[in-house]
């Protein structure tokens, strides 16, 4: 997120190339100017501020528990975000956990002011947003159970990178967990070629918006003029596919800033360790594992006893560009392997569809391989009946979570094993299988329960931050699941109108008025037929309201 775009200064010009910046990065005066430019850039083109599910303390805490760390419950935790933009990632945490204390810091005055307007409008009492320089934080901030620094590290000068590590060391609670994301090699060796071309192409353009437009045009020309089957052409096409739907702020702050310094994972971790911090895991825990790799690559990684070098080689084989690492105080001495028994204190969620089997279906209450497709499209195979039963139980409750004990009891009941099998035998088996599923990214773990309303009343009430997002015209809406989801413009209007005071009929009335004024377009399936009278047109919109509510409730956009 944070970075700096270098603008010409006729009296004391700043360097504009990556190598030039690196060569003078230790200059205090230059670094202060870079930090100052950061504020100007983010005031000029604000970063899109929304939720990032992997940063939620409940998910971070679940991973920490797997490594033996007794983390604070999110419901009463102190949470700090460095580089919070306008608070879009942490405001939903504060709203959903009114006993938590949440603080957000950002260098951009305009983004902090935007966030303050939102939290004042929504009366969020447990969230504080402050304009601050990470290199000069006061000592009286207190300790935090979770510190999030997403999209900042690689886009700031060395002094700020050092300050980020210092901040974690100074302000993490004894059992606290820090989240830091950053760009990495080897993947960024490839991506840097496009970035350098964009920087040169946009060198004389001052407006951030115009820079982004020119960069997109350059990428299109690079794609159109490169051979479709050449390595260069294939790579440019893959980059265009990634960036075509990206927000302008992402392209500007990722590709057109003057500072973007990726590192190899092992070098980044050496810096973290020098500040008294230890590596715990990736926030996307499944990326720790080599089982995603081809066999020859897996063989190489499997021979390595050093965990850090094993993960470094996984980065090599995946051509990784980005990491999201969890850090703790070095004195915690976290385990280097996960403990299946830790799942007994966690909450789990997932949804599964059984795959057709060649040679006949194996009953779920029998041993034998059964294939499933998880909610995110990943295939898994399960042998043990207790784990198969768990997939059925989790699917029935999706998107809500269950505690491990709830899941174990319901799974044993489904198998009619409440008396036949020792409960501890099933518990051990289920812990092991669920941990394996987590390593394949096919089950969600949280420290706290997620319970969405099973039904909505006649006067539906949107999650406050989701409603605010929709009222501000945002295209990505934050949810109680801490996702950022895209919904169509007409559905966003329904969400914005869901204030708990309007009935479903009244929401349809507002839509009807907008349809008559020509300011509303609904999907074709709900568009009134040509020549329909007002009653038929209203009825079509009423059905649209029902459809929207049915689709948006399980996304976590509504409260009870």
Write a brief structural summary:
The protein is α/β, with parallel strands linked by helices and 560 residues long.
Task: Write up what this structure looks like.
- With 560 residues, the chain is of the alpha/beta class.
- It has three domains: 1-338, 3-Layer(aba) Sandwich (Rossmann fold); 340-446, Arc Repressor Mutant, subunit A (Orthogonal Bundle), CATH 1.10.10; 461-559, no CATH class.
- 43% of the residues lie in helices and 14% in strands.
- The protein contains 20 helices and 17 strands.
- The chain has helices at 18-23, 28-44, 57-66, 91-96, 109-121, 158-171, 187-201, 208-225, 231-243, 248-255, 265-274, 295-302, 307-318, 385-397, 404-414, 423-439, 464-471, 489-497, 504-517, 534-552, and strands spanning 78-82, 101-106, 127-131, 144-149, 172-183, 277-282, 322-329, 347-349, 352-354, 370-374, 379-382, 402-403, 444-446, 461-462, 476-478, 484-486, 558-559.
- A seven-stranded mixed sheet has the order 3-2-1-4-5-7-6, with helices on both faces. A three-stranded antiparallel sheet has the order 12-8-13.
- Strand 4, helix 6 and strand 5 (172-183) form a beta-alpha-beta unit.
- Helix 14 crosses helix 15 (404-414), helix 17 packs across helix 18 and helix 19 (504-517) crosses helix 20 (534-552).
- It is globular, with a radius of gyration of 25 Å.
- The two termini are 34 Å apart.
């Amino acid at each position: 997120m944070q970075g700096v775009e270098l603008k010409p200064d006729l009296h004391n010009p700043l360097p504009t190339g990556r190598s030039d910046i690196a060569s003078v990065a230790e200059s205090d005066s230059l670094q202060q100017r870079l930090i100052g430019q950061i504020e100007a850039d983010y005031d000029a083109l604000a970063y899109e501020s929304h939720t990032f599910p992997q940063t939620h303390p409940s998910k971070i805490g679940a991973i920490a528990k797997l490594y033996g760390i007794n983390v604070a419950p999110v419901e009463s935790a102190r949470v700090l975000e460095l580089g919070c933009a306008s608070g879009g990632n942490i405001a939903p945490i504060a709203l959903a956990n009114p006993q938590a204390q949440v603080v957000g810091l950002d260098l951009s005055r305009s983004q902090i002011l935007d966030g303050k307007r939102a939290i004042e409008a929504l009366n969020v009492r447990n969230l504080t947003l402050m304009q601050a320089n990470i290199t000069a934080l006061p000592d009286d901030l207190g300790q935090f159970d979770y510190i999030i620094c997403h999209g900042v590290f690689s886009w700031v000068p060395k002094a700020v990178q050092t300050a980020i590590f210092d901040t974690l060391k100074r302000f993490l609670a004894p059992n606290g967990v820090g989240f830091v994301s950053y760009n990495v090699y080897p993947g960024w060796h490839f991506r840097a070629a496009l970035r350098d071309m964009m920087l040169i192409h946009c060198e004389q353009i001052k407006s951030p918006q115009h820079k982004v437009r020119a960069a997109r045009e350059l990428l299109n020309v690079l794609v159109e003029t490169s051979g479709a089957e050449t390595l260069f052409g294939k790579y440019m096409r893959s980059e265009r596919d990634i960036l075509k739907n990206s927000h302008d702020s992402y392209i500007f702050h990722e590709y057109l800033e003057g500072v973007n310094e990726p590192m190899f994972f092992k070098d980044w971790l050496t810096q973290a360790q020098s500040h008294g911090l230890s590596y715990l895991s990736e926030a996307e825990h499944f990326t720790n594992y080599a089982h995603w790799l081809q066999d020859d690559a897996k063989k190489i990684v499997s021979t390595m006893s050093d965990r850090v070098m094993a993960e470094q080689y996984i980065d090599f084989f995946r051509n990784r560009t980005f990491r999201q690492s969890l850090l703790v105080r070095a004195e915690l001495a976290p385990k280097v392997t996960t403990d299946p028994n830790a799942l007994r204190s966690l909450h789990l969620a997932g949804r599964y569809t059984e795959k057709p089997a060649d040679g006949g279906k194996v009953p779920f209450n029998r041993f034998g391989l059964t294939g499933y497709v998880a909610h995110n499209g990943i295939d898994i195979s399960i042998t043990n009946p207790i784990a198969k039963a768990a997939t059925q139980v989790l699917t029935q409750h999706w998107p809500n979570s269950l505690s491990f004990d709830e899941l174990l009891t319901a799974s044993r009941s489904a198998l009619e094993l409440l008396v036949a099998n020792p409960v501890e035998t099933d518990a051990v088996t289920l812990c092991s299988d669920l941990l394996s599923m987590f390593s394949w990214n096919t089950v969600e773990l949280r420290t706290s329960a997620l319970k969405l309303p099973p039904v909505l009343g006649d006067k539906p009430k949107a999650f406050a931050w989701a409603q605010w997002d929709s009222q501000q015209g945002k295209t990505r809406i934050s949810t109680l699941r801490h996702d950022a989801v895209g919904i169509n413009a007409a559905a966003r209007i329904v969400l914005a109108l869901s204030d708990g005071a309007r009935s479903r009929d009244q929401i349809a009335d507002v839509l009807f008025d907008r349809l008559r004024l020509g300011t509303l377009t609904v999907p074709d399936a709900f568009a009134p037929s040509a020549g329909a009278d007002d009653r038929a047109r209203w009825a079509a919109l009423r059905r649209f309201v029902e459809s929207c509510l049915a689709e948006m409730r399980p996304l976590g956009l509504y409260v009870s």
